[in-house]
Amino acid sequence: MNIEFVQNWFSQVKKGTLSYIILIILDEKEYYGYELVQEIKIHTTLEVAEGTLYPLLNRLKTDGIVESKWIEQESGIPRKYYTLTTEGRETLQEMKKIWSTLETAINKLQK
Amino acid sequence: MKKLNFTTPTAQKIYDDYFNRVTRCTRTLPLNDQLEIMMEVNSHIYEATQNTTPQTEVEVLVNALQNFGAPEEVLQPLVADKKVKQATRTFNPRHIIQALYLNISNGIGFVLVAILYLSITAFGILIIAKLIYPNHTGLFIGNGHLFAFGFISDLPNNAAELLGNWFIPVVAILIVIFYFLNTLLFRLLKRK
Question: Membrane-crossing residues (chain B) (predicted)?
């Protein structure tokens, strides 16, 4: 097996699916950054530097897919909560259809 | 922004050093963007230090910072995106150059923008050169074919300048065209 090839391929898959995973998680409820990272870690085996999530969230925000708000905490350190916009929910539905089609196609090919 | 306080001086120093690095990474951005990033990193580090198994303060902090990643690497795309936004909004040459520098690795599009921007600067220099060295700056032909557009220090004897007093208006029109193309390309890249 070519380990390097597989690692590169997995790195590309990870890069391409992280935004989809974030949208699926945010569809459930609003999350703050740290909590979102932990949720990704719980549900997937993706090992990402936690800080890489923020450029991605900023890009999703610029594209109008998520929105954010600061909420003050008793500790004095506020949390920034992210939530899906209406456009974000519609985008996620479309992504789910594409993912499902792709999954079916790959499953057929693998048989 | 309320910064975190640690009881051990070592932990405090590690935290302060890390935030100095975050400040250095974001210093080219407007103050509100800098503050937004600092608050988000601070909030993440705080939450990470609160949600961990009991260890020493230094261990907890070092783990949290390691998991977040080096600010120079993980924050670079965020700073680059925000810088492009600022450059598109203001079209200030300083912000454009900084945005190009931060995004140059993001693809051929930004390299093209950088070349167009350099050309605009070069055309501006040519206008000044035409005023100072009118005989050595222009569109030159020799032996019936085009051979130079710009400044030539050693002119061949058979070289003739074609544009004369029209050189400056032609270059000014080129600057406008290149500036328009650059703005268009920059906005298209930003939308990507």
Answer: 108-133, 166-189
Give the total residue count for chain B. Answer: 192
B135: amino acid identity, one letter: N
What angle separates helix B57-68 from helix B9-26, to the nearest 10 degrees? 20
Q: In A, what residues contact B, Cβ < 8 A?
A: 32-35, 37-38, 49-52, 54-55, 58-59, 62, 70, 75-80
- CA angle at B68 for the pair B50 and B77, rounded to the nearest 5°: 140
Which positions ≥6 away from A15 have C-beta within 8 Å?
none
Interface predicted TM-score of the whole assembly (ipTM), two decimals: 0.89
Q: Indicate the fold that domain A9-110 takes in CATH.
A: Arc Repressor Mutant, subunit A (1.10.10)
Strand partners, A66: A84
Q: What does the pLDDT profile of chain B (192 residues) look like in tens digits?
A: 888 889 999 999 999 999 999 999 999 899 999 999 999 999 999 999 998 777 889 999 999 999 999 999 899 888 988 888 887 777 777 777 777 777 766 667 777 778 888 889 899 999 999 999 888 888 888 776 667 888 888 877 777 888 888 989 999 999 999 888 888 877 776 655
Amino acid at B183: T
Q: Looking at residue A29, what DSSP letter applies?
A: S
B140 torsion bin: left (phi>0), alpha (psi -120 to 50), beta (else)? beta
Which residues between 30 and 89 in chain B have a beta carbon less than 8 angstroms from any beta carbon of chain A?
37, 39-44, 46-48, 51, 67-69, 71, 73-78, 81-82, 85
What span, in angstroms and rounded, lies between the C-alpha atoms of B151 and B133? 8
A63: closest chain B residue by CA: B191
- Residue spans of the domains in chain B: they are 107-192
